[in-house]
């Protein structure tokens, strides 16, 4: 008889039901965000608005804001949402520690679909997802299409 070891957290993560992130979100996603910011800046934009759906501890949005400053953006606005309460507290603290006059970052506990519903049409220039693009007819897919920002599925 084979004994199978599993954890409830692992099962919830695989089913997409966990509110706790699996680990740090670095690597290729940072490069994709940097390319998107560079392209946006090369088109003459001096301000950028970013929305991070499922921002976890805010690291990805904080790194994106720092990269935007490197590219010469003079007005950087970011909003991160997650259901992970401890992560949002950490993100808020990091935003205070790394505060910069050109940058305004807000982190809140919310569902991605609720965050998109609160956005105004076309408000976000870049939208970060932690998963593949949702089906276009799903509520999240329809909400993303309505906003019209550039969506980076970097999960």
List low-confidence stretches: 1-12
Tell me the Rg in angstroms.
Answer: 16 Å
- Major sheet details: 5 strands, parallel
Q: N- to C-terminal separation?
A: 37 Å
Element string (H = helix, E = strand): HHEHEHEHEHE
What does this protein structure show overall?
The chain is an alpha/beta fold and 155 residues long. Helix content is 41%, strand content 19%. The chain contains six helices and five strands; from the N terminus they run H-H-E-H-E-H-E-H-E-H-E. It has a five-stranded parallel sheet, covered by helices on one side. Helix 6 links the parallel strand 4 (126-129) and strand 5. Helix 2 (28-42) runs parallel beside helix 3. The longest helix is centred in the first third of the chain and has 15 residues, at 28-42. It starts with 7 loop residues before the first helix and ends with a strand. Residues 1-12 have low confidence and may be disordered.
Which labels suit this protein?
single chain, 155 residues, alpha/beta, 5-stranded parallel β-sheet, 41% helix
Brief overview, please?
The chain has 155 residues and is of the alpha/beta class.
Topology:
Elements: H1 8-15, H2 28-42, E1 47-53, H3 59-70, E2 75-82, H4 85-97, E3 103-109, H5 112-118, E4 126-129, H6 139-147, E5 150-153
Parallel strand pairs: 1-2, 1-4, 2-3, 4-5
């Amino acid at each position: 008889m084979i004994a199978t070891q599993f954890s409830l957290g692992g099962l919830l993560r695989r089913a997409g039901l966990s509110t706790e992130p699996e680990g740090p979100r670095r690597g290729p996603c940072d490069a994709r965000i940097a390319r998107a910011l560079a392209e946006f800046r090369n088109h003459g934009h001096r301000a950028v608005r970013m929305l991070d759906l499922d921002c976890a501890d805010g690291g990805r949005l904080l790194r994106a804001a720092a990269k935007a400053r490197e590219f010469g953006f003079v007005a950087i606005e970011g909003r991160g949402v997650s259901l992970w309460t401890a992560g949002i507290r950490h993100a808020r603290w990091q935003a205070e520690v790394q505060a910069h006059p050109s940058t305004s970052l807000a982190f809140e506990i919310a569902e991605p679909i609720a965050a998109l519903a609160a956005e105004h049409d076309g408000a976000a220039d870049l939208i970060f997802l932690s998963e593949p693009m949702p089906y276009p007819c799903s509520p999240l897919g329809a909400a993303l299409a309505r906003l019209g920002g550039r969506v980076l599925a970097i999960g």
